[in-house]
Design goal:
It is a single chain. Helix content is about 20%, strand content about 25%. It is α+β, with helices and mostly antiparallel strands and about 170 residues long. The protein has one domain: Aminopeptidase. A 7-stranded mixed sheet has the order 1-2-3-4-5-7-6, sandwiched between helices. The longest helix is centred in the middle third of the chain and has 15 residues.
Length: about 170
């Protein structure tokens, strides 16, 4: 898609989830959210959304951390980077001290690096969420390695630095 001039727009939960249903490659919309933000062109056409909520992993849900649980884009250049930066500014304005997100193996993380985020950990593939005591259906992302990213903070020496273990592939 060609370069389009984008600006931030508020997005209601229902609209953000519908956008994710239409444009996300491998995940359905998340169940909940704290806020959503969109990237629209001068004609008001929505080209991307970011949904931010409580961290999915219980051990990361400390009351001061949020997670970008979903972004989706129609392919408009730089839309996701714009939204990752805006999500962090909004989270900080609301008093949160940390913003994280995950990418899957095969996703480059280019939008995150473009917004100054840091790759801080890799997670091995998991067998799935299903256990005998708590049956769950798979969501298509079992057996896929993941990478944990964090928004830049003021104490970072160089927010453009990315550890050597960075993922490769399309984003």
């Amino acid at each position: 898609m060609s370069d389009v001039r984008l600006h931030l727009v508020p997005v209601r939960s229902r609209q953000a989830k519908e956008f994710v249903r239409t444009w996300h490659r491998h995940h359905p919309p998340p169940a909940g959210q704290i806020f959503a933000v969109g990237a629209a062109d001068d004609a008001g056409i929505l080209h991307a959304v970011a949904i931010v909520g409580r961290p999915v992993a219980r051990h990361l849900d400390d009351g001061t951390t949020l997670e970008v649980t979903r972004t989706a884009s129609d392919g408009t250049r730089n839309a996701n980077s714009l939204l990752y930066g805006a999500s962090w500014r909004a989270a900080k304005a609301l008093g949160y001290r940390r913003l994280i997100t995950f990418t899957q193996e095969g996703e480059s993380g280019a939008s995150l690096r473009g917004a100054g985020w840091h790759l801080i950990a890799s997670r091995p593939p998991r067998a799935g969420w299903h256990t005998a005591s708590r049956p769950r259906t798979g969501r298509g992302n079992d057996h896929v390695a993941r990478f944990l990213w964090q928004a830049p903070d003021e104490t970072s020496a160089d927010p453009r630095t990315v550890p050597a273990a960075r993922p490769t592939g399309p984003e």
